[in-house]
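Exercise: predict the fold of this chain.
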Amino acid sequence: ELFSFITLVEGSSTASETVDLIKSQIEAEETAFATLDSCHTKQHVLQELEAYCDLITPGSYIVAADGIMKELHDVPRGQPDWSWDNPAEAALEFVEKHPEFIIEQPVWPFNESELTENISHWPGAWLRRR
């Protein structure tokens, strides 16, 4: 149902021509939300956050997917450097430099369980623009 609100742009997420194309497609009065889900190294995610943060409207989010890597560094097929080289660490570093953003997961729209915290592959990844 939401397909009319989504535009696929193929290219390197940090390449200036890709960033410029995306920025040119967003009208000033539109609400913007971004999901970053390509290369999950800390440095790459930091570059994406810097490239797209000014598009995010107040009250909306930019999400750095797969911060769960931090918790999976020591499992089979995991990588030891995931303990520090992951999207969640990039989000933490980013908000230190950008006080207009806070790490805050949205309220669950529905929960019939006894869970008090959301189970997610995206922990620490929801950056809300104040």
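Check your answer against the key: Residues 42-52 form the longest helix (11 residues).
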